[in-house]
Amino acid sequence: MKPLTTGRRVKSWIFQHGYRVVELYDQNRVWFVCKYCHIHKVIDTGGSGVFDVSKATSSAAAHLGLQKRGHGFTKDGLKPRRTGQQLSLRQTLETGVAVSQEAANAMGNFNIQQFREVAVFCLLDNNLPMELLARPSFREMISLANPEAEAALWVSPRSVATYAMRLFQYMQPQIVCALSEAASKIHISFDGWTTKGGKRGFFGVVAHFANASGVIQDLPIALPHLAGSHTGDAIADTIKKTLQEYSIGSDKLGYFVLDNAANNDTAVSSLAHAYDFNAAHRRLRCGPHTLNLIGQAIIFGSNQEAYNNNNDEQLQTEEVYMQEWRQEGPLGVLIDVINHIKTPQQHEIFRSFQTAANAELPARERLHVLEPVKPVVTRWNSYYAAFKRATQLQAAYNSYAEHYINALSLEDRRACQRGNKLPEAPSWMRSTGLTAADWAVITEYQDCLEPLKLATEKLEGRGKAGKYGAIYETIPVFEYVLGALEARTRSYEQVDFNPPDAPEDHLFVNLRAAWSKANDYYNKLDRSPAYYAATCLHPYYKYYCENSWVDKPEWLTSANAGFLQLWQSYKPQRTRPLSQTTAKPRHRGIDDVIGALVRRNKAQVEAAHDDEYERWRTQEPEWTSEQYLSDGHPVKYWIQLRSKYPCLSQFAIDILTIPASSCDCERLFSELGDLLEPRRRALGSELLAALQLVRSWRRAGFDGLYNNGDDEDKWSDVKDEEIVQQYDIEGWSTTP
């Protein structure tokens, strides 16, 4: 055999050290045979030395680069041996060290492909740059541990990215299979996200379902790049493509959990037309997103009706007063002080005041030096966290504010004495700072936000056991929030805010605005019977609505009608006729006539016995609070009852797997932002999306190629160059 060349490509350097062999019946299939291994019969005895180079020559190059006899070659020639380098187990055997056959068999061969796969997952999991594998210091560290491992690593970031794309193409069918085998319907949440600078927009799509074991999975399935206007129709088209790509048909498609944006309403309506479902029933709202709006109403207020004033002129005046209070009241002053701490010098000053305040406390009450928490305008819970941290560090904030107030006061006096213009400064520096009364107001706002904090934790996280963050929590949680807001509001109803020495009515106004926002959302729950159904089908909450609405029978009547409408689509068709009533004889005694009507109708008894929901509701005990808080898992509960309630269990599993929020989309975007930092802004959108999905799937427990033991040749018939072009890998650049 001798090296062959073709006019299609330049012969690689590897063929200087081996043979290029083309299959007789498939000339596109090219193999490399190591010359040394062939001559020394290494291949004949089962050793390595033959590599398929039809797609890439990296495996053959890695083999030639091994530090062993007859090898150690690179593109530039013979690789110099490093002194003091640790030999691998294979190299040790090749030096002639006597080892028993049993020990040699136990050592096995170094799995190059599995090592590469793990290396890529390590880069993705830790947001490490792909060019890390090419850095000399990193390769030296790996080589010291195992020279074969160092030789197996790619030297080009492009090769790493290409391999990652092969992983994506291999793992995606696993996701399609998992969705097809789901025990529940596939529920969808989606949301949009824009990168810093607004250059690119992504649309995260997450599938929520239970597998055959009842384990709930929240799995990202798509991160398409969205160009142009994010209209409802454009969103619907994107979701349709995703559903088709993952073979999710109308029989498997469940509910949509989205934020309150109007374009989401339009998108679901368009999808309802395409997949033939009731848009109002399937379009659910993200609970934590609404809690965020309620929290912002408590902090900022936004509802004119909350002023309880029908006079337009007085209403306008009250709005002006409220706006001034937001800027110059206790909350506004505190937020301005917090935001002023933004340079290393200011952080150091603040830390020094913390240290001084701690020194005056008993040893057991002293705190570690803490950083100030800065609020984010769009997140009410960041204000809650900022207020909570501020009350912890009240003494330090007072000292910090007083420090700048005194310094500015001195500068103002000097400017006045010289007839100069007063220096520019934030308004809080010319105030009295934060008084004890101001801190009382801040604490009161913090107390008002506490129920929202608890409610958000209940709705936004699935939890390891899959017990929280599901739709069955929605009605109880929002009734708790409404009750807490009503109780707070009632405490202010008898207060006269008109006298000069009366307390300000800002919190009362904001509480009314928050209650109105919460009540609006609560009323929207009636649009979909899924909320009520999920509550009734949960073994802990099964009697919640019945007890909570005992004084509102019309609510129960309406909710039950919606529930029965859903249940009807799962109930089996009745196959046996109801018992026929016999004709009444004409001549019967009075006792016979009356007696015929006092006995329960046999047809009704049979119908009730046939209804799985009625049987479950009356015969199965509800969960205790201990069961619910310990090991209670509603989906697994219903899987265990499948044989007893085959239709009702499927209904329950489909409903109880609906998430209460679309927070998984935000988590996806948060990770995507981390993946872009700090030097990955040039990543192509398709490449970036594929990398993030591979990372998410791996964390969800889906395996790569070599964990499944598949052959690399079965991966994909797509050549490396096609992958490079498809994902714009060539255009990706990094700055070392």
Automatic annotation (TrEMBL):
Keywords: Metal-binding, Nucleus, Zinc, Zinc-finger. Coiled coil: none annotated. GO terms for cellular component: nucleus. Transmembrane segments: none annotated. It is found in: Nucleus. It holds the Pfam family Dimer_Tnp_hAT. InterPro entries: HATC_C_dom, RNaseH-like_sf, ZnF_BED_domain_contain. GO terms for molecular function: protein dimerization activity; zinc ion binding. PANTHER family: ZINC FINGER BED DOMAIN-CONTAINING PROTEIN 39 (PTHR46481:SF10), ZINC FINGER BED DOMAIN-CONTAINING PROTEIN 4 (PTHR46481). This is Dimer-Tnp-hAT domain containing protein. It comes from Pyrenophora tritici-repentis.
